[in-house]
Each structure stands twice: as C-alpha cells, then as structure tokens.
Design a protein that fits this description.
The complex is a heterodimer of chains A (361) and B (262). Chain A is an all-alpha fold and 361 residues long. Chain A has one domain: ABC transporter involved in vitamin B12 uptake, BtuC. In chain A, the strands form 2 sheets. Chain A has a two-stranded antiparallel sheet with strand order 1-4. In chain A, a hairpin with a 3-residue loop joins strand 2 and strand 3. In chain A, helix 4 runs parallel beside helix 9, helix 4 crosses helix 10 and helix 9 crosses helix 10. The longest helix of chain A has 27 residues. The two termini of chain A are 37 Å apart. The relative contact order of chain A is 0.19. Chain B is of the alpha/beta class and 262 residues long. Chain B has 2 domains: 169 residues, Rossmann fold (3-Layer(aba) Sandwich); 56 residues, no CATH class. Helices cover 34% and strands 27% of the residues of chain B. Chain B contains 9 helices and 12 strands. Chain B is globular and about 65 Å long. Classes of the chains: A mainly alpha (361), B alpha/beta (262). The structure holds adenosine-5'-triphosphate and magnesium ion (MG). The site of magnesium ion has 4 residues of chain B, from helix 1.
Chain lengths: 361, 262
C-alpha cells in the first residue's frame, strides 16, 4: 500500500505548478467571461447605448429621463433578486403577482381606511407577507409538488382573498392612503431630481444580497441546494428550512415594494399584477441565472433588471415604436437563455486538460 | 481488541419505507482502528444502513450507540457533529460550484469583518486543494475552478477527501472505488488504512472482493436487509466471501449461468 504513495511521480506536481504561472495572465480575462453577470452586463450596455443614441434628443439620459426607467426598474429589482435566489436554489415563485397588491391593500386598509398608525400597517403587511411565503415554502417542502404549481395556486388564492376582503371591509377595490411625512420620505419620496425611495431601497438591498449570496455561508448553501439537493442535505445543510426562508424572503421583499408603491401613489389597488410575474422572471433570466438552478449572481440580476427598465420605459424617449419593446424583450430573453447555457459550459470547461495545454504553450 | 468499547454499535435496527421493509434486526459493532467491510448484492440495503448511521434516515426501530451511549440523529448535520463523516454512493459534489466552495458546503469556514461573517475563500481553497492533492490528484491546483470541469474520478476523490478531512471518529465510504482508476482506487485503500491507523473506525462498502480483502478487519454481509454473515479477517476463504457477496449463490453456479450451461 505504501508503494502507491511512492508511485506518484513528483514531477507531476512541479509540472502543474509551473504551468499555473504561465496561464495566470490569460485566465484572468477568461475568468471574467465565466462570471454569470458578464452576459447581463454586455446586454445592458448594448441596450443602454442604443437607447441612449436614439433617445438622446428626448432626454433619455437626463435626470428626469433616467429616473423614469430607473424608478420602473426598482420595483421589479427589489423582488427580482430574492426570486433569483429561489431560482438558484431550484424553485420558482409566481405568487408575487398577488402578494404585491395584497400588501399594498393591507397597508391601505389598516392605515388608510381604518386610519391606524402607519407603523402598525407596515408591520402587519410584512407579517402577512411572511406568512404567505411561509405557506408557499411549507407546501413546496412537504409535498414535493413543483413550486410553479404551488405558487400558481397561492397566486390565485391570495388574489381572490385580497379582492373579497377589500370589498368586505371597504366596499371598494381601491383605497386612499395618506402617509405621515417620515413614512413618505422613507418609502415614497423623490430625491436627486426624481429618483424614488424605492431606487435607494433597491440599491441598498442589492448590496445586502450581494453579501448574502456571494460572501456569507448562506449563499454557499443556496448554490449547493440548487446544484444537488440530495448532496446538500447529506452535507448537513438544512435544505427545507432554507427553502422556506427563501420563499419568505421573496414575499417580504414583495411586500416592501408594495408598501413603497402604496405610499408613493397615495393609494392602493387590489387587481392582480400579472406583468410583475413575467418581469421578475425575465429580469432574473436576462441577469444570467440558470433556470435549472445552481448558478447565478446578484449583480447579473441587477443588470438584467436595469435592461428591462430601459427597454420598457426608455423606449418612450425614442422614436422607436413602443409596441416593439415586447419584441425586443422576447428576443433578449431567448438570447439570454442560450447564452446562459454557453456560460455554464464555459464555467465548467475549465478542465484540467485545457489547463495543461495552456501551460505547454 | 474485541473487549474494547465499540465506537459505534447498532442494536436491532429496523428500517421500513412505508410498507417496504428494507432492514431487519441489524446488530453490528465497529471498533476504533478497524475497518468494517459491508458487503452484499445490489439492493441488499447497504446504502440504507449507512444512511441511518449518517443521520439521513431515522431507524424505524432499534438503537444506535456511540461510545456506549445511545444517540439520536435528527439530520446529517448532527451525525457530522458527532464525528461521523460519510461519502454517499452518488453525488457529494456540486458541478456548478468551485472546488473550495463544494468541499466546504454546509461547514463553511468564515472570518469576521466587523459585524459580518464572511466565507473564507482563501482558507477553503487552500485546504480543499491540499486535501485532493494529498489524494494523488495533482492536476488540481486552483480551488476556484468549477467542480463540473473535473472528471468523475476526480469528483469522487474530492468527496472522499472532504469526508477524510471532517471525519473525527467514523468514516463511512459507500462504494468509493466504483468510479476510480487503478491508481486512485489504490489511494483510497491506502487512505482507508491510514484512517484506521489514526484510530478511526471505517465502514467500507464495495462490490470488489479484492478491495474488501485488502483492507477489511471485519466483514458483514447483508442479504435482503438482514445480516447473513459476520466474521473477522481470515475466518472465511476468498471463495466463501465471493459467494456471500453474490447474495448466497455460489460462484460456480453463476459462472455456469453466464456461459449458458445451466
Ligand atoms: N427512500 C426509499 N424509499 C423506498 N425504498 C427505498 C428507499 N431507499 C432504498 N429503498 C429500497 O431499499 C432497498 C435497498 O436499497 P439500498 O440502496 O440500501 O441497496 P444497496 O445495498 O446500497 O444496493 P447497491 O449495491 O445497488 O448500492 C432497495 O430495494 C430500494 O429500492
Ligand atoms: Mg448502495
């Protein structure tokens, strides 16, 4: 048995060490191309340049102009990043389309219609959202029913409940809400010439989420869960608790977006927001997250959301027919899905063989 | 040697999945500094047995004792904390994660930056790369590489290196040599011997008589979920062991069946 130890040629070790030096320079750039956000960034840059060029005359780049599409992106962005976490973990959540209006209405009814202090309304809203997320997570982890179906069910259940409860309590599907100054400043203000509070929430949350996904151990758990659920569980990762926590995170962030919206517009509406479902998924996929899970990045989702904002709102600043924005998004989505697959192949193709060849040159 | 307290002991372990009974009345002792070879046909229940030890499954009835005290594992994490490290038959690594991150999945090393606990990528990569290189996989020199870019055997070695790194008392290997080349398989067997010399108990599952006989001190054969034979090194001949591993059929019969003479 000891012989096996001596068998191993010592030259092999030196070989690979010297080769790693020579290939270090090229692998730095190659490594950049393997990052999941690279494609998203290039897509955003392209869209930005094109719209910046065609929209220059109509102030696409001015403060007012850019705040329009950044504000639009921020609502999607606050929700898209946790959705991206879920997708990396191998799950989907489409109930956000109902949680957003449900949250806005909860706040509207408690602090608008019943005139309770706004902090009570906000706390209640966040708690109800967390409960919906918990229910999603519990059903998905307990039953093994695909999360698409589970959250489709909660989407309809929550939206029905929102409408009927709104009618029951207020007799309308829309309530007015006048938030006190501090709440207005925190959730619905305008700063720097037009940027909404939600933009700053989005940026702040992005920083937090970058920390969680890429620097904390929980991020590692999320990637492991999406990569191989069985192995993740065997490695001692509390996979079920983690999934439930992620569903709750999605719902709570959606509630935050709903709170911002209600306070900003001084009113809350109950109809289900189906567009939001599509927008969040598009932002995540265009942002480089693999639909099959296990791979993605927060910055990628951030860029993907901005791209969506530019195409959907920035188009109004150009002479491009605005009906074409959907066409552009459809094409972009297809390209993104194809690119994501290529990036995944690139990421794993950093094989020992290629490295060896690189060293030989 | 046989008088010492076993590190791990199973008493009357039964396991069923709903109506399917997989394990019946398993009694086993594994001593420190010994290798237990768990042998048996496909579907005999070997993986199920070690999954109960690894905290993946709870036994339907029966007791697991560690150092003479009954233990109960609510999950793999608790078994790991008790010093049981397991390499399961499939998986164990994450293709789209870096070598360093995959190695430490679930037990991430962290360092503090003010109020934040940050994944210590440098330490993780260093330990992971060193561990696999110690295994004879010298082509790996960068812990940032994706696991998916490794060969099947390299991934297997990574999983084993991980278990060896974390195994404090018991190391369980479920068919670790299945995907490995001759040289790497020899390394695994050497690791098993080294681990044993360090005083750990090793449970080793294999379908290869050669591998079993070269490291085993103690053999247990499972047939349809029950222990059919339990013996020590030298008590049975190679032919007898081979027959037991085939689920009780004699090799001569099998050979006849293969050549179509039966
Ligand atoms: N989660 C489960 N639910 C139901 N039945 C199971 C489950 N896990 C294992 N079994 C059954 O238990 C039996 C033993 O399976 P196990 O994986 O332990 O066999 P094994 O001895 O490891 O076989 P192999 O040599 O092929 O790895 C099989 O018949 C299998 O179908
Ligand atoms: Mg097995």
């Amino acid at each position: 048995m000891n012989k096996a130890n001596q068998d191993q040629p010592p030259s092999d070790i030196e070989d690979s060490q010297t080769s790693s030096d020579s290939s270090d320079g090229s692998s730095k750039y190659a490594g950049l191309f393997r990052r999941p956000e690279t494609g998203a960034f290039m897509g955003m840059a392209l869209v930005f340049i094109v719209f910046g060029f065609f929209g220059y005359e109509k102030n696409f780049l001015s403060v007012i102009g850019s705040s329009t599409w950044v504000n639009h992106a921020s609502t999607i962005g606050i929700i898209a990043i946790p959705i991206g976490f879920l997708m990396i973990a191998g799950e989907l959540d489409i109930s956000v389309g109902a949680v957003l209006p449900a949250s806005a209405m909860t706040l509207g009814v408690t602090s608008g219609y019943y005139d309770l202090p706004i902090w009570i309304g906000i706390t209640l809203t966040l708690c109800i959202a967390a409960a919906i997320g918990w229910i999603n997570g519990m059903i998905v982890t307990r039953t093994q029913v695909p999360s698409l179906i589970v959250t489709l069910a909660t989407l309809f259940a929550v939206s029905g409940l929102t409408l009927s409860l709104a009618i029951l309590t207020t007799n309308t599907t829309q309530v007015a809400l006048n938030a006190p100054g501090w709440a207005k400043a925190l959730f619905g203000g305008r700063y720097l010439g037009g940027f909404r509070s939600s933009v700053f929430w989005w940026i702040g949350l992005t920083a937090c989420f970058i920390f969680i996904l890429h620097y904390s151990k929980w991020g590692n758990w999320i990637f492991a869960l999406g990569g191989d659920k069985e192995s993740a569980r065997n490695a001692g990762i509390p996979t079920n608790k983690l999934k439930i926590a992620l569903f709750m995170l999605v719902a709570v962030c959606t509630a935050l977006a709903g709170i911002c919206q209600a306070i900003q517009f001084n009113s809350a509406q109950s109809p289900t927001n189906f567009t939001l479902i599509f927008n969040t998924i598009i932002a995540v996929v265009v942002g480089g997250v693999l639909l099959t899970g296990g791979f993605g990045s927060v910055m990628g989702i951030f860029f993907g959301t901005l791209t969506l904002g530019i195409v959907q709102q920035g188009i109004n600043f150009t002479n491009i027919d605005r009906n074409l924005s959907s066409l552009i998004i459809g094409v972009m989505l297809l390209i993104a899905v194809l690119m994501n697959d290529t990036f995944r192949a690139l990421a794993t193709s950093w094989s020992t063989q290629k490295k060896k060849n690189g060293g030989d040159i | 040697m046989s008088n010492q307290e076993p590190i791990i002991e199973l008493r009357n372990i039964n396991k069923s999945f709903g109506p399917i009974d997989v394990l019946h009345n398993i009694n086993l002792k594994v001593n420190a500094g010994e290798v237990l070879c768990l042998l048996g046909d496909n579907g005999a229940g070997k993986s199920t047995l070690i999954k109960t030890l690894a905290g993946v499954h709870n036994p339907t009835s029966g007791e697991i004792l560690m150092g003479g005290k009954p233990v109960h594992f609510d999950g793999p994490r608790q078994a790991q904390d008790a010093g049981i490290a397991t390499v399961h038959q499939f998986g164990g690594t994450f293709p789209l994660m870096s070598i360093g991150r995959s190695f430490f999945a679930g037990v991430e090393p962290t360092k503090w930056y003010g109020p934040f606990e940050v994944f210590d990528r440098k330490t993780a990569n260093e330990i992971a790369v060193k561990s696999v290189r110690d295994f004879g996989i010298t082509r790996i020199d960068n812990g940032d590489r994706m696991v998916g870019g490794l060969s099947g055997g390299e991934r297997q070695s990574l999983a084993i290196a991980r278990a060896v790194h974390f195994g404090a008392q018991v190391l369980i290997l479920d068919e670790p040599t299945a995907a490995l080349g001759v040289k790497q398989a020899a390394h695994v067997l050497r690791i098993v011997n080294e681990t044993k010399r360090r005083g750990l108990a090793v449970i080793f599952i294999t379908h290869q008589v050669m591998h079993a006989m070269s490291v085993g001190d103690h053999f247990a054969v499972l047939i349809r979920g029950g222990i059919a034979a339990d013996f020590r090194k030298g008590e049975r001949s190679r032919e007898e062991i081979t027959d037991l591993m085939a689920g009780g059929e004699t090799m001569a019969d099998l050979e006849a069946a293969i050549s179509g003479d039966a």
